[in-house]
Each structure stands twice: as C-alpha cells, then as structure tokens.
Specification:
single chain; alpha+beta; Pemi-like Protein 1, Chain: D; two-stranded antiparallel sheet; 2 helices; 2 strands
C-alpha cells in the first residue's frame, strides 16, 4: 500500500512501486471509477474505454437538416389507403 498527494488541479502521482507492479507507464491511459466511496484506477478493458465516442457532426445547415428530416418522415408514413 502506498499513499499519494492530490495537487491543486486534482492531479495525483501514482507511486513508482504501484506503476512497476501494474505495468502502467508514461502515456498509458487508465479508467478512473468511483466505487463505494473509493477511487479505483484500472487499465481499459475494451476499445470503447480508450476515448469517448466523437459527436456526430454535419456540414449541412439547420434548414437543410430540417428539410431532409421532413422528407424522411413523409416517406416513412403509411399511405391513407393502407391505414
């Protein structure tokens, strides 16, 4: 067991003994979790944990986006004869 200090910006230095034991090195990413009043650092398990998903962006204007959405709704609505 080791102790570490939390600095002004919330940064923590992981003690060398812990880094050596876990194989965590400079530049590695870790997942930070709050569990039952504890802070847990662990290696990412899956690909999605390495970085948050990017937000979808589009080059369309708001007017064009609305027009396309309306067209999509019209094509999905059942015809009056089918209802």
């Amino acid at each position: 067991m080791s102790t570490a200090r939390i600095y002004k910006k919330g940064q923590v230095t992981i003690p060398k003994a812990v880094r050596d034991q876990t194989g965590i090195d400079v530049g590695d990413r870790v997942v930070v979790e709050a569990r039952d009043g504890e802070i847990v650092l662990r290696r990412p398990v899956g690909v999605l944990e390495f970085a948050p998903p990017r937000r979808r962006t589009t080059d369309l204007s708001w007017t064009e986006t609305r027009r396309l959405a309306r067209e999509d709704r019209v094509t999905r609505q059942p015809a009056a004869d089918d209802a």
